Amino acid sequence: MTIKEKEDIMFAELKLKNPAIIDDGLADENSYLSAPLKIVYVLKEVNGGTDWSLREYLAAGGRAQTWNNIARWTEAIFKIDKELPWSYWEKNTGERRNEYLKKIGAVNVKKTSGGHTSDNKEVYKAAIDNGKILSQQLEWYAPDILICCGTGQAFVDACYQDSKPRWKRTSRGIPYFVDGKMTVLSFSHPEARVSPCYLLYALTDAIREIASKISPAV
């Protein structure tokens, strides 16, 4: 059974209990599995709607808000040995989304939509309630790099209930830990009110430093 088939079965069962559930996961299974690195982003929730699929949305290229940054981050991680100027990254955003969003996994800890501003207590509770679902997705996707986008504590408390990992920090303060072959980073949400260039270079700087210290697939 493919990962997509497993996702479809799981979300069909979840939607029987709650029709407001919005499926997430891999935009394109083959593209994800054949990418240079398997990258999964753990986000809070989608912003609005009930009858749609995040997987299909990302496979079609998403939208600039949120997904311009994630597409940039993904390409930059794949090209981590290259130092490219911001003038490169601020161009061709639509084309980049169409190419790179197919290569990632995107998981929300809260499986129903929220508003423009997330209620962090509600998101955290949903993450804990969805711990088994999130752990199952993590097992299916087996990412090399997992980036928690404002969800680090919620993700750990949901998926590591028996034994909490020990967070470390890069020299510039980005939290991370290593679990087997997976490197987990606690990073900003892609819609954080920070210049996109700051986010991009902070993330790539952290990944370079972590890669120099450890030996997973980064």
Can you give a write-up of this model?
The protein has 218 residues and is of the alpha/beta class. Helix content is 46%, strand content 14%. The protein contains ten helices and seven strands. It has helices at 3-17, 29-34, 54-59, 64-78, 86-89, 93-100, 120-129, 131-141, 152-159, 196-213, and strands spanning 25-26, 39-43, 104-108, 145-149, 168-169, 175-179, 182-187. It has a seven-stranded mixed β-sheet with strand order 1-3-2-4-7-6-5. Helix 4 (64-78) crosses helix 6, helix 4 (64-78) packs parallel to helix 10 (196-213) and helix 8 crosses helix 9. It is globular and about 50 Å long. The protein starts with a helix and ends in a 5-residue tail after the last helix. The model has no long low-confidence stretch (mean pLDDT 94).
What are its keywords?
10 helices, 7-stranded mixed β-sheet, 46% helix, alpha/beta, 14% strand, 7 strands, 218 residues, globular
Layout of helices and strands:
Elements: H1 3-17, E1 25-26, H2 29-34, E2 39-43, H3 54-59, H4 64-78, H5 86-89, H6 93-100, E3 104-108, H7 120-129, H8 131-141, E4 145-149, H9 152-159, E5 168-169, E6 175-179, E7 182-187, H10 196-213
Parallel strand pairs: 2-3, 2-4, 4-7
Antiparallel strand pairs: 1-3, 5-6, 6-7
Helix pairs in contact: 4-6, 4-10, 7-9, 8-9
N/C terminus separation: 28 Å
Q: What's the helical proportion of residues?
A: 40-55%
Q: Measured on Cα atoms, how large is the radius of gyration?
A: 16 Å
Secondary-structure element string: HEHEHHHHEHHEHEEEH
Number of DSSP strand runs: 7
